[in-house]
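Researcher: Checking consistency across runs. Here is Dehydrogenase again:
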Amino acid sequence: MLDHPKNESSSTDRAGKERISPPKQQQPEPGLDAEMTPLADHGESSYEGRGRLEGKRALITGGDSGIGAAVAIAFAREGADVALAHLPVEDRDAENIESVLENAGVQVHRFPGDLRDRGYRDGLVDEAAAALGGLDILVNNAGKQISVESLDELPDSQVEATFDVNIFAMFALSRAALKVIGQGGSIINTTSIQAFEPSAHLMDYAATKAAISNFTKALAEQAAPRGIRVNAVAPGPIWTPLQPSEGQPIEALPKFGHDTWLGRAGQPVEVAPAYVFLASDEASYVVGSTVHVNGGKNQP
Ligand code: NAD
Ligand code: MG
């Protein structure tokens, strides 16, 4: 294996991209983007659209912050109308992203609610489709990650909640989406490097991500004859509110992502183009695939 020396004192990686070392910090789960130090980059000032999603309508879960917010900004700047789903406690982040999307001149709708609430979950896709006048893209991105050192301390209630939000909700949302998304549409699921390389302290989370990767392939085969493409994105360590809100041990934050081949964590804006590609007609022959965006890690 190659040695990848990391210069811990450098503020950039070898490609000149900023390398962050977040101070130790903690927020209650699910965490707010607005409370992160440093703030994450969702592409607010950098993402340039090229009309690649003109006329499409997308529902993005967890679209208030992190990867979902960056995907929302990219989709809007590519010309898509967007519905954002998020937890009600994240209104502050969601309003901020909403105003960035409005500036792109597209339709924006917000659907605050808890995906563990069956009433909300079962109605979300239809409500979003009604507001947008139809649906072409579902991004199953909402996720819950709580670090627990040992299985002895991992309660069943957490295991159930993590599975409920991360994978059980995907079954319900995808079932509803297959009824409203037409030919040429797509579903994109957020899996993780954790699906393939689990961290011991993220046992329940990593197991849901392995399930998502598997689910993506089976759903892709079912949906393909309907002309709907299903794919996944597998991010590596990305600086989002998931991490400082119990997603990592606090002491691990300053070196978060420093073990990748690039020696740094990624920013949400660096993940969004993979979703744009998979959602666009350019990916017309890409089905059941996973795009890995992880700064360099051994991957399948
Ligand atoms: P994030 O905290 O910004 O996004 C997660 C979102 O999930 C929250 O904003 C919230 O709106 C939503 N959510 C959580 N519980 C919910 C519930 N009960 N009901 C409704 N919505 C709920 O963090 P992120 O890192 O951008 O996470 C987005 C996705 O990316 C997740 O699926 C996560 O597992 C995945 N991911 C993240 C990383 C990373 O390093 N940040 C790496 C791989 C995969
Ligand atoms: Mg959030």
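Researcher: Does this match what you'd expect to see?
Model: One thing to look at in this run: Residues 123 and 176 are 8 Å apart (CA to CA).
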